[in-house]
Amino acid sequence: MTAAPSRPLIPKKTLVDWLGVSPFVLFALMFLILPTLYLVTGAFLNADGQFTLENIAGLFTPKILASYSISLKVSLASAFGGALVGFFLAWAVVLGGVPAWVRSGLLTFSGVASNFAGVPLAFAFLATLGRTGLVTVLLRDWFGFNLYATGFNLLSFLGLTLTYMYFQIPLMVLIITPALDGLKKEWREAAEILGANNFQYWTRVVLPILFPSILGTFLLLFANAFGAIATAYSLTGSTFNIVPIQLYAQIRGDVLHNANLGYALALGMIVITGVSNFIYIWMRMRAERWQK
Amino acid sequence: MKTQKIWAWVAILFGSTYFILPLIATFEFSLRMRRGEYSFDAYRSVFSDVQFRESFSYSILMALLTIVFGVLLVVPTAYWVRLRLPQFRPVVEFVTLLPLVIPAIVIVFGYLRLYNSSSLIPFTGSARGTDLLLMFAFMTLSLPYMYRSVDTAMRTIDVTTLTEAAQSLGAPWRTILFRCIFPNVMSGVLSGAFITFAIVIGEFTMPSLLNRPAFGPYLQLIGANRAYEPPALAIIAFAITWASIGLLQLLSRFNKTAPAKP
Predict the structure, then answer these.
(1) How far apart are CA A284 and CA B214, in angstroms?
(2) Residue B91 sits in a domain of what CATH number?
């Protein structure tokens, strides 16, 4: 007979406390963490289950590098375009002196449009800028301008970037508007009293304050575009080889003829979206210092 | 000041052209089915398609199940973490953000490998099992939105005091959770529910790779094979998104005025 029964190994209260979150922990393990870990470890194993770096090296072959490169290009371009246009729209409604209904209209629409992605978005752009789309037809009939003769194609880098911007711009508007709202009038007054002109106020006061928000949101948009597949897939079929489409084909029918190389492809996506998201979260925490 | 206003209007004009033009074009295109005149034939064709009705009701059912089970997972967890395990909160917050970090296609790839018919838990071995897995997949996708809206709603109520008050009146845990906590975070639950609905209805990747007859894969299939139905479907999908997000925003505006009363 040793320890007193009043002191069990784990106190009952602690046990109950942790039992309360066990459904969540189990869910997260089963449907989030273990599936991801399985792919990550699989990327470092060969077909016989031994450790290897061959799969990672296999990513650096022309075909896969090409798909990473086109994916990066589309994501960077649509994130840059979305951030730029979104910033100006947010600036216009916050500081441009437009009526209040424009602001609430833009914000409401942005809430909807940032969620309007996937397959229907592809349909909308095909109806707009496709070969028989409204804009293409009107340009031809009204202005005698043949869009497709210029080499434009909706099923290309430019077309995909234009399409992605439809959900990128609203996302930027939604995230950056509160940051612009947070610019205090006192800062402008202080800058003016100290003799700063408008340009100096923007470059020396506003941009340094907003920089973490802008860069952070840019990275979020980038990751958002990088992981997206449905729009591109229904727009271009499997002809346009961005990474998610390549991975989709790999999951469907092992087109790389190497299951572990498929895991490495997935790992590459996780690393890219992961890094940009973590910098986003970090930047956001920095930006929040000014939003108190 | 004057030039600033002009530039602001230029930006607004440019932005609204870019946003509205595709909607007009899509609507116009969807009316073109009958040669030489505008008609709603494409919509008629869509609504009379059996596959449309089946895939659409499948997705709605999945969305409702996802919302119910998602709420049952998230609300008690968020409550318990606030009440008993505040030190565990950063971990929960981090985990709930993960679905935004890991692309959906990667998550479902992991499922297919981990839960195939020859594994320990063969979810994909049967149709019902795959449905279940798909529901968990949707729950994962909506976790960041659901958790954050519920947690935000929970921030405004004093969980500890409410619990103690209920306990001192002799309420069991079930009563505390369902009659005391739930009604108080209802606004958060509803916001999470609307956004979950919008996500689940349109999702393509997960049901497509799990081979379930959901609305997203149906849209893709129609897009590859028909000419005038896709824009009609895009208009319908936009209306659904608009309805769920519009309700969500109406709700949040309603909430902002709510704390004003004593």
Answers:
(1) 36
(2) 1.10.3720.10
